[in-house]
Design brief:
It is a single chain. The strands form 2 sheets. The protein has a 5-stranded mixed sheet with strand order 2-4-5-7-6. A two-stranded antiparallel ribbon has the order 1-3. About 75% of the residues lie in helices and about 5% in strands. A hairpin with a 2-residue loop joins strand 4 and strand 5. It is flat and about 125 Å long. Helix 10 runs antiparallel to helix 11 and helix 14 runs antiparallel to helix 15. It is mainly alpha-helical and about 700 residues long. Among the domains are: about 160 residues, Tetratricopeptide repeat domain (Serine Threonine Protein Phosphatase 5, Tetratricopeptide repeat), CATH 1.25.40; about 130 residues, Signal transduction histidine kinase, dimerisation/phosphotransfer (DHp) domain (Helix Hairpins); about 160 residues, Histidine kinase-like ATPase, C-terminal domain (Heat Shock Protein 90, 2-Layer Sandwich), CATH 3.30.565.10. It has 24 helices and 7 strands.
Length: about 700
């Protein structure tokens, strides 16, 4: 009853808001999101999946990253409960968000595994959406043969439904458009528009009109393009979303550019670019910048033109959009060649040729021809089959009459023969029954023996596990108690050393007492770090926003108090606006030990200026903490050994080889990875990597 109550709330929410990607606007939507968040702490299993999936849907038009996070959490729940449909739905939602974030390869890796699940379970509705998604991802990657294969498969599934077939026609047209086969693309776009009108379906009809306008632009029939684009604006009016309106403005810009209306072209491109910037759509930003480049070039303003082209290149470096990258490289090559800068022209000409050859290979052309031939062959077979269907039915009827007559004659013979066979079969069954009963007795005996062996091995395993747990608990307790018990006598020893140092006047004795005091201090440090290791192993990590700059400054102040080597400089490069949640104390332990280690093993040669560099930066979805020094270095023969307890890299180590083991333990406790390498300059670099997405998800779970 409890689960059904929450399920009813979620279903009402879904029906009131529509399908994934179409949300309620403004304040009402925010209230719905807050209401669903309040349910999360009270639901488990399938109801929790439905709440998370609905939160992903509501955020899909507001914040792609947040929507992706909720979809990923929904997918984890779906996997835990083993619900195939829920797994497919949440994976599709993740793939769609990755597609909107221009993370094409990640989208493909999400879509691919669940395609098989959807096929095996005959989730037809989900399958056609998955095929569309993976087809679009491959298209933007310029893997056109794969894109065409999936879109044709989607078309086959949608056959018989004109509204849905129009979607596949549009997607197939887009692939041919990217292949610059504009005539073929136009035919598919016109089919898509015709299918929509036949089905009296005007939803998203603007997209069909925009695609047709783009084809006419490519075919230099710009006036005809304007007719379709003006019709798209008529349908759009005040109900257009920003992304679609931006597409109309971009295509209008291309049409006016083709007609030589440069001022109008610039206005449309700039309007589309503004919309793309507001929606953080990098692909459309680059497209419009390329359009503005062409306008500026025709206006005779080469400086403004090359500025737009360079901006487009910077954006394309951050997204996977091969087709436009080819056009940009070609434009650069032509621009520099016209200005006699043949060195730059050659660089971009090589980039253009290499990228184009990697896309438009002989294998691609062969695959495209094969895919199209297979689809057309299927259509021809279907047409022939429909024409011959009536004839086949008549032939089958005549054959059926003949067969019935023959069967009537054979029936008597079969009955006679079956009686004889029945007697033989009964005898064989009797013999088989005796054999089976004997085998069953043997199998039962074997099963009993096997069960006894399994029970015995299970008991042995349980005993071994319990013994191992006791040993681990005793070891932790031993380390904790021993460290505490030793620290008392150790403190007394240091006190006596200090008293002796004040009272004793003999230089040799003073030297012994100083060495004894230093040794006691080292032992105290080792015990302290053993206690910290024990605490790390037996405590739970917290999740709070980390200020790396503050922690690094504190550690540097501490090292200055301890005393820095002469001429040593400490540099820090900490990237601004890093959002990372983790355990502050464990992060401090990691940084303190790595920085202390770099200072301890500094280069004491007079020919080198010793330094320690601390860098904290983002690298894609990773956060990297790097500590680099030009010290005495560490042998690379067995680098993992230095992270083991009591392993010493040098005689300078004053903590018995516990510092790096402590660092590795703290790093793994909060989900990071630590390693070291030698840089090309010969410096030693320790680096720690953390996942930024995992940090955000843990912080949301903690909240």
């Amino acid at each position: 009853m409890y689960d059904n109550f929450f399920k009813a709330i979620i279903v009402l929410s879904i029906f009131s808001s529509g399908v994934l990607g179409i949300g309620v606007e403004g304040h009402a939507q925010s209230q719905e999101i807050d209401s669903l968040k309040g349910l999360l702490s009270n639901v488990r299993g399938k109801p929790r999946f439905e709440v998370l999936y609905e939160l992903a849907r509501l955020n899909s038009t507001r914040d792609y990253d947040v929507a992706l996070s909720y979809a990923a959490q929904a997918n984890e729940v779906a996997l835990s409960i083993g619900d195939s449909l829920a797994i497919v739905e949440s994976s599709r939602a993740m793939g769609q968000m990755l597609l909107k974030l221009n993370n094409l390869e990640a989208a493909i890796q999400v879509f691919k595994p669940v395609l098989g699940v959807a096929r095996r379970n005959q989730f037809k509705d989900q399958l056609k959406f998955l095929l569309n998604g993976i087809g679009l991802a491959y298209m933007y990657q310029a893997s056109y043969d794969n894109a065409l294969k999936y879109h044709f498969e989607s078309l086959v599934i949608r056959e018989g439904n004109q509204s849905e077939m129009s979607i596949s026609y549009s997607n197939i047209g887009l692939v041919y458009y990217k292949l610059r086969d504009f005539e073929q693309a136009l035919q598919y776009f016109l089919r898509a528009l015709e299918s929509k009108r036949e089905a009296n379906d005007f939803y998203d009809i603007e997209d069909c009109l925009i695609n047709i306008g783009s084809c006419y632009n490519a075919l230099s029939e710009n006036q005809k393009s304007l007719e379709y684009l003006n019709e798209a604006l008529t349908y759009c009016q005040d109900n257009c979303d920003a992304e679609r309106l931006g597409a109309i403005y971009y295509t209008l810009g291309s049409a006016n550019l083709g007609l030589g209306n440069l001022e109008e072209a610039r206005q449309h491109y700039e309007s589309a670019y503004k919309i793309a910037r507001q929606n953080a759509n990098k692909r459309w930003e680059a497209e419009n910048l390329f359009g503005l480049y062409e306008v500026s070039l025709r206006e005779g303003n080469p400086n403004q033109a090359i500025q737009s082209l360079k901006q487009a290149e910077v954006i394309l470096d951050s997204i996977e959009y091969t087709e436009l990258r080819i056009s940009v490289f070609d434009a650069f090559a032509n621009f520099y060649a016209d200005r006699k800068d043949f060195q730059q022209a050659s660089v971009y000409q090589d980039k253009y040729i290499n990228l184009k050859d990697s896309v438009y290979s002989e294998q691609l052309i062969s695959n495209l021809a094969k895919i199209k031939t297979n689809f057309e062959e299927r259509q021809n077979i279907a047409i022939i089959a429909s024409k011959n269907e009536a004839l086949v039915r008549q032939q089958r009827f005549n054959i059926a009459i003949v067969i019935i007559a023959v069967l009537a004659g054979l029936l008597v013979f079969v009955l006679y023969r079956s009686n004889l066979v029945k007697k033989r079969v009964n005898q064989a069954l009797s013999d088989a029954k005796v054999t089976i009963e004997d085998q069953n007795r043997q199998l039962t005996s074997l099963n009993r023996n096997l069960e006894r062996m399994v029970d015995a091995r299970t008991i042995e395993l349980q005993v071994a596990n319990e013994a191992l747990k006791r040993v681990n608990d005793e070891l932790d307790n031993f380390i904790y108690k021993t460290s505490h018990d030793i620290r008392g006598p150790l403190a007394s020893l240091k006190g006596m050393c200090n008293v002796a140092i004040m009272d004793v006047k003999d230089p040799l004795a003073l030297d012994y007492f100083n060495k004894l005091d230093a040794t006691a201090e080292k032992l105290n440090t080792i015990l302290t770090r053993l206690l910290i290791i024990n605490q790390i192993n037996n405590s739970s990590a917290s999740h709070e926003l980390i200020d790396f700059r503050e922690i690094v400054d504190d550690v540097i102040v501490l090292e200055r108090k301890r005393g820095l080597p002469p001429r040593l400089t400490i540099k820090k490069e900490i990237e601004d606006n890093i959002i990372f949640y983790s355990d502050k104390e464990l992060i401090r332990i990691i940084l303190e030990n790595l920085i202390d280690n770099a200072i301890k093993f500094y280069n004491d040669s007079d020919r080198a200026d010793p330094f320690v560099k601390i860098k904290v930066e983002r690298d894609g979805n990773l956060l990297k903490v790097r500590v680099i020094d030009n010290g005495i270095g560490i042998s690379q023969v067995n680098p993992d050994k230095i992270f083991q307890m009591f392993s010493r890299a040098s005689e300078r180590s004053g903590t018995g080889g516990i510092g790096l083991y402590l660092t590795k333990t703290a790093t793994e406790k909060i989900g990071g990875q630590i390693d070291l390498k030698t840089t090309p300059e010969g410096y030693t670099e320790f680096f720690v990597k953390f996942s930024l997405s995992t940090s955000r998800m843990r912080a949301e779970v903690a909240v």
